[in-house]
């Protein structure tokens, strides 16, 4: 029996994908989550999942942080990103950060089934139109992913706010924590990223930003 987890904040899409998969794969159990936190809980509880179908812009994912963090904590779990974007820069980053497949939401049920079958066999999968166009990430970009994976979700939120140019007191307000806690998070972020100031931290954060809005 196969066990899949669909992690997407759009209930109608989850239901449609679940129905399609159940029509294709016999003896299939499908779990669902709608944010990063609930996804981590399910991953911790269900240790025999065969595949994670991950939405990039699900709440808590914060661009590529969710993918990087899950890849680091569950290195054996096959991950396929299912996204509304077909931009090659995003696809390149997703594949470079450990996904085994990138499935556009515009894909037909037949294409999705074929993609999943290849991924379950340990292969990578991309649409034919993307296969020869995806770029390899540099060693520095891969190293960034390793560093960012060491951040807690709260620390990554602080890093994202630093990237947006917010002051410590503004970050404290947004996260409903004290300025002292913000400062402690920033100190930990600098240490984990191996940087010494905000500018260096922001440069690292900018490498994980998705260059364009993505629906899923």
From TrEMBL:
Gene3D superfamilies referenced in this protein's UniProt entry, alphabetically: 3.40.50.2300
Molecular-function annotations in GO: DNA binding
GO BP: phosphorelay signal transduction system; regulation of DNA-templated transcription
Domain HTH luxR-type: 144-209
PTM-bearing positions, type 4-aspartylphosphate: 55
InterPro entries (UniProt xref): CheY-like_superfamily, EvgA-like, NreC/VraR/RcsB-like_REC, Sig_transdc_resp-reg_C-effctor, Sig_transdc_resp-reg_receiver, Tscrpt_reg_LuxR_C
Response regulatory domain span: 3-120
Key words of the record: DNA-binding, Phosphoprotein
PANTHER family linked to this entry: HTH-TYPE TRANSCRIPTIONAL REGULATOR YHJB-RELATED
Protein name (record): Two component transcriptional regulator, LuxR family
Organism: Pseudoalteromonas denitrificans DSM 6059
């Amino acid at each position: 029996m196969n066990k899949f987890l669909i992690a997407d904040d759009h209930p109608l899409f989850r239901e449609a994908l679940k129905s399609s998969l159940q029509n294709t794969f016999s003896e299939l159990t499908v779990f669902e989550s709608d944010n990063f936190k609930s996804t981590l809980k399910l991953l911790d509880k269900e240790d025999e999942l065969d595949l994670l179908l991950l939405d990039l812009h699900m709440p808590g994912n914060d661009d590529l942080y969710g993918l990087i963090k899950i890849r680091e904590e569950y290195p054996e779990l096959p991950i396929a990103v299912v996204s509304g974007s077909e931009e090659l820069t995003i696809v390149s980053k997703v594949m470079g950060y450990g996904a085994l497949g990138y499935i556009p939401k515009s894909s037909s049920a037949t294409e999705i089934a074929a993609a999943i079958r290849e991924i379950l066999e340990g292969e990578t999968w991309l649409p034919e139109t993307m296969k020869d166009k995806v770029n390899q990430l540099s060693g520095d970009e891969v190293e960034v992913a390793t560093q960012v994976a060491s951040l807690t979700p709260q620390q990554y939120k602080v890093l994202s706010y630093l990237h947006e140019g917010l002051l410590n007191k503004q970050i404290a307000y947004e996260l409903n924590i004290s300025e002292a806690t913000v400062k402690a998070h920033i100190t930990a972020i600098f240490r984990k990223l191996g940087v010494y100031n905000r500018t260096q931290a922001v440069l690292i954060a900018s490498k994980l930003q998705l260059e364009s809005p993505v629906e899923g």
